[in-house]
Specification:
- This protein is 35% helix and 23% strand.
- The chain is α/β, with parallel strands linked by helices.
- It has three domains: 122 residues, Methylthiotransferase, N-terminal domain (Rossmann fold); 229 residues, tm_1862 like domain (pyruvate-formate lyase- activating enzyme, Alpha-Beta Horseshoe), CATH 3.80.30.20; 66 residues, Nucleic acid-binding proteins (OB fold (Dihydrolipoamide Acetyltransferase, E2P)), CATH 2.40.50.
- The chain has a six-stranded parallel sheet with strand order 2-1-3-4-5-6, sandwiched between helices. The protein has a six-stranded parallel sheet with strand order 7-10-11-12-13-14. The chain has a five-stranded mixed beta barrel with strand order 15-16-17-19-18.
- Helix 7 runs parallel beside helix 9, helix 9 runs parallel beside helix 10 and helix 13 packs parallel to helix 14.
Length: 442
């Protein structure tokens, strides 16, 4: 009987795409894949280590799966991803439950790792993250209607709070022809929405072509494939070019939605963060984006960064009220070792960070509540994603909602009335918790 392999994929969509590539390698090698860890002979945990909470989640998952080795049929654990790359020695030396460790530069060695574990042998490999092959065959794990497309790897921005450049390496774009081909294959599979991701999608092409090429890539995918919706995440305010603005205005497949993490608005704090541009750079990017009719902007900010004064924080709060982001999330600053900000003076007390977080999210809640109420009674087009047999509703999304991070639209309709992957018009009847909506067919 073939060895059964289970997967736990943590962290961001970019990490999930690595999981999909590893799944393809294992299936091609003849392994059975099971969605149930309790049925697996070997479990692969693709970890995240971006901030403290992500590291804790990764470690907790390793320990939970390790319980199956003691009390179930599990024979081995393979740890991959960012935690494995960042804390390779600690995982190898301090977690005897783990049988194999692969860095982010060695995801294509997953078959070798599983083969070794199946033989009862320990295995570790940390290939060069700056030369590992990008892309490759994959098994889409995001359902029937949408898929992610990773257009680049690594990051050169070197924000002082962020360990990603050390974990993921230098910024590298994938060739445009390769990406257009992959997007076409996804569309041919029936995927309706492609979500473009990378550590900094707006930097796409600068290393390969000497200039920012995201607008051209989006145009080619729209014109050369049958995809219906295109969406971009992880854009930087200093790279919102006139060409990108024009692409939003003229490309009918590019949904009017952008993920634009600002991290702060105080020029003093942005400089300490080593963010490119100042507060006016952020304001100007948002002003120009608001010229796009119907644009929805998602953003994030960090509160409690070292040296953030009460005036800096108040400036951020006032800006959140001014910008009226359709989607916004705040994070308390996570002090990460081996980053410049770790050694900064004026570190802020955890209780104060939480106080600031509560204040700013309360401001955003009021903004979003008002926006949600304004949508009641309106009509919109949604993409049908699934049917919930318990609630007896169809689950769908508006174009201004990104998958997995924004809200849903639940449609009152009998099972069999609609098809998954169908675009339909609905009327918004009510808001649920101000993030999700109940709707009826028009």
């Amino acid at each position: 009987m073939a060895i059964r392999v289970g997967f736990v994929s943590l962290g961001c969509p970019k990490n999930q795409l690595d999981t999909e590539v590893m799944l393809s390698h294992l299936l091609e090698a003849g392994y059975d894949i099971t969605p149930e860890e309790t049925e697996a002979d070997i479990v692969i945990i693709n970890t995240c280590a971006f901030i403290e909470s992500a590291k804790k989640e990764s470690i907790d998952n390793i320990l939970d799966i390790a319980w199956l080795k003691e009390n179930g049929n599990l024979k081995g654990i393979v740890v991959t991803g960012c935690l494995a790359e960042r804390y390779r020695d600690e995982v190898i030396n301090e977690m005897p439950e783990v049988d194999a460790v692969l860095g982010v530069g060695s995801i294509h060695s997953i078959v070798k790792a599983v083969e070794s574990v199946a033989k009862g042998e320990k295995f570790s490999e940390f290939g060069d993250k700056n030369t590992v092959a990008l892309g490759g065959d994959r098994i889409v794990t995001t359902g029937e209607t949408m898929a992610y497309l990773k257009i680049s790897e690594g990051c050169d921005n070197c924000c002082t709070y962020c360990a990603i450049p050390k974990i993921r390496g230098r910024f590298r774009s994938r060739p445009m022809d390769e990406l257009v081909k992959e997007a076409g294959e996804l569309a041919d599979m029936g995927i309706k929405e492609i979500v473009v991701v990378g550590q900094d999608t707006t930097a796409y092409g600068i290393d390969l072509y000497g200039e920012y090429k995201l607008p051209e890539l989006l145009s080619r995918i729209a014109n050369e494939t049958d995809v219906s919706w295109l969406r971009i995440l992880y854009c930087y305010p200093d790279k919102i070019t006139p060409e990108l603005i024009n692409e939003f205005k003229t490309n009918p497949k590019l949904v009017k939605y952008i993920d634009l993490p600002i991290q702060h608005i105080s020029s003093k704090i942005l400089k300490r963060m080593n963010r490119k541009g100042d507060g006016e750079t952020v304001r100007d990017a948002i002003r120009r984006l608001r010229e796009i009719e119907g644009i929805a902007i998602r953003s994030t900010a960090i509160v409690g960064f070292p040296g953030e004064s009460e005036d800096d924080f108040n400036e951020l709060c006032e800006f959140i009220k001014e910008a009226k982001f359709e989607h916004f999330g705040a994070f308390t600053y996570s002090r990460e070792e081996n980053t410049p900000a770790y050694s900064f003076e004026d570190q802020i007390d955890e209780d104060e960070k939480e106080r600031r977080y509560d204040i700013i999210m309360r401001e955003q809640f009021n903004i979003h509540e008002q926006m949600a109420n304004e949508k009641i009674g309106s009509e919109c087009t949604v993409l049908v994603e699934s049917f919930d047999p318990v609630a007896e509703v169809y689950v769908s999304r508006r174009a201004d909602n990104a998958p997995e991070i924004d809200g849903k639209v639940f449609i009152r309709a009998r099972k069999g009335t609609l098809d998954v992957g169908e675009f339909i018009r609905v009327r918004i009847d009510d808001a649920i918790d101000d993030y999700d909506f109940i709707a009826s067919l028009c």
